[in-house]
Fold:
Amino acid sequence: MKPPIRKPTVHSMKRRSLSHDYSYKGYYHITITTIRTLRQPLGQIAGQLDKPDGDPHAPHVELSSIGKMVEEELKNSIHKFYPMLEVQDYVIMPEHLHFLLVAHSNIVSKNGKSTHLGHVIAGFKYGCNKRYWAMTGKIATTTESSGTLGSPTVPSVPTVLGDSVAKSPSSTPSSLPPLFDPGYCDVMPIDASQLSTQRTYIHSNPRSRLLRMTNRSFLQPQRHTIDTAVSIPALHGYLQRECPQQLTPESFSTIEKRLLQQNGHVMCDSYGKTELLHKRLLPVVCHRKDAPLFQQQKVRCLAEAASGAVLVSARISKGEQEIMDAALLSGYPVIRIEDKGFPDIYHPSADRMDDCAAGLLLLLTPWSYQFRRHDDGVTVAFCKTMNCVAQAVCRKKDSWWKEGQ
Structure:
């Protein structure tokens, strides 16, 4: 057998956008994690959830000596070696850090050469590693100046940032354990709204972490929580009826491989209080053929929610989004079928986490985690599968709102 032409795709948040020039000016939300063998080397969560932001007792991170060193490198070294770069917002968590890096012009090194963002991150990591090794006694220190404020230096080791560090792996003492995990995650906000969301996410990290720590039983992904009782053959039959033209052997095979399964049934992971599943559940699916009746469907859904029912939807179409958003805004609990699986470390937005903690929102997903770019589309069969899951969770057809007409 011939070897495969390429290795199978590894889904990771660290993959780069193929269409973007990472030496170009703009905003970058960067996430770097420490290696897993270290147990919260950068600090620990402290504070109280009932204290507002700005209060000295509000949720925050008490940085360790290593965390303070990383903060110092982040605030000073990147801009020193790349004057066109500015760290505007950041948070250092116990085992990772987020920062909003602004490139006011295209990224170039001191010799005027166009430089990839990856070289900047690699240099920052190396500067932190060098000081980390010295602080933990991995290498001998000298009294020479290293180019970083108040930090020890290592003889015959390049300074903190620059192309030479990123391009010369041989300059790194390979036998020494690094502080950071390889690679980094980047998110590029494309408008003012997304930029504001990223800033809020960065600053809310300590509060979100303390909230999860206080509610460990449900504010983390729970695996294979719900048995939908839908078998794979039954799902195939449903899709054949709902979207026969879009369903192909290849598309169904892709769906089947991604679905969470146990004992021949489609399963769901959950995030939030599963007590909502014990209430009266009603699926919300808006079909094109029912578009003239949308207002009638919306009124019926919200009336049932007001009487104690919990609406369940994949929230795909605009009509479904409108109904589900209106229910949540009115203070009615809802259940959402997510189109992505939950990774090992799952961080919903602060608003969604608050809703989950308050018992207003339960997130379910029938999918194993797979990284997907924002511009990646989904198939009709994929969407119909989530509608099937919504109805299976409710044990009720999506046409319930027409009953009694």
